Amino acid sequence: MAPADRARHSALERLVRTALAEDRVGRDRTTRAVLPRAVPAEGLVLAQRRAIVSGTAAAGVAARAVGLRISRAVPDGTAVRPGEVVLSVRGDARAILRVERTMLNLLMHASGVATATARAVRAARGTRPALQVLATRKTLPGLRDLEKAAVVHGGGHPHRRDLADGILVKSNHLALVAVEEAVRRARRRARPNEPVEVEVRTVTEALRAARAGADALLLDNASPRRARSIVQALVAAGLRKNLSIELSGGITAERLPRYRSVGADTASLGSLTHSAPAASFHLRLRPL
User: Fold this and answer.
1) Known catalytic residue: 138?
2) If one looks up domain 122-274 in CATH, what number appears?
3) Is a pLDDT exceeding 80 seen at residue 261?
4) How far is Cα 133 from Cα 262, in angstroms, rounded to an integer?
5) Residue 199 annotated among the catalytic residues of the structure
6) Catalytic site residue from 138, 184, 255, 260
7) Active-site residue among 76, 147, 215, 220?
């Protein structure tokens, strides 16, 4: 396993351990009272609505942590219909009952993010090339890797994972340092071939950042009309070539079609992770 994969797996295990401890799975008083002895059983996780599946790895870690065996799991990124089996586990019914809510929470949240992402990706189609849908760092604390993976399963791009992952000069940086100096300093610290991105709000800011040598611009909270005017100004100034343009700020899947003719390359949607409705799954238990 590659170092990056090991790090992600370790983070996933920590997340699951925290979730299991939070639900006090070793103190299920009801199951202890009703089932004093082991009962061989199978737990089937069924989709209740259409969804894009994500989170099966996390659910599997939770199941194995209490001694269960995964007998079936659809691949992450799979589209499922109501009634389809997403995951099945086998073992002691008492263990299934203890871990049921943790597994469902992980699956429902991650699949909700994947489903929301797939909806946004569909909404971004219509231009050639289509706007690429990006995630943001607006994630729930402790769930970033789960959510970023879910965005990928939905057809989006995870984008920056954290503050160490890439250079983005934001408006609060520029409140303290002129854009030309900020880009110069960022370029000096950038890794080889690493792009320097600058957040801009107006045509003037965009032109200054591009002339300072920025590789990418983040158009923050720009209406489609204002975003289009910024892109056109960059084209007119001969600065658009080799310059990546990202849209961000208040963009939702419903509003994405309005931005397709702007001329940008990507759109980042915080709503994919901080506001995605949970997918609807439930667990059916049956004795073996």
Assistant:
1) yes
2) 3.20.20.70
3) yes
4) 15
5) yes
6) 138
7) 220
Considering the chain, what percentage of its residues have pLDDT values greater than 90? 91
In degrees rounded to 5, what are phi and psi of residue 58? -65, -45
Catalytic-residue membership of 226: no
Q: Which pLDDT does position 20 carry in this prediction?
A: 94
The candidate with the shortest Cα–Cα distance to 219, out of 236, 207, 202, 233, is 202
Fold of domain 3-116+276-287: Aldehyde Oxidoreductase; domain 3 (3.90.1170)
Selecting among 42, 100, 145, 199, the annotated active-site residue is 199
- Domains of the chain by residue range: 3-116+276-287, 122-274
Determine the Cα–Cα distance for residues 121 and 126; give it in Å rounded to an integer: 10
Could you confirm whether 220 is annotated as catalytic? yes
pTM attached to this predicted model: 0.93
Which CA distances in Å does 250 have to 39, 127, 182, 208, 217?
51, 21, 26, 24, 17
Residue 276 — very low, low, confident or very high, per pLDDT cuts 50/70/90?
very high
Choosing from 170, 211, 225, 284, the catalytic residue is 170
What mean pLDDT value characterizes the chain?
Answer: 94
Token code pair at residue 42: 């199978």
pLDDT score of 3 more than 70: no
Catalytic residue among 64, 84, 92, 101: 101
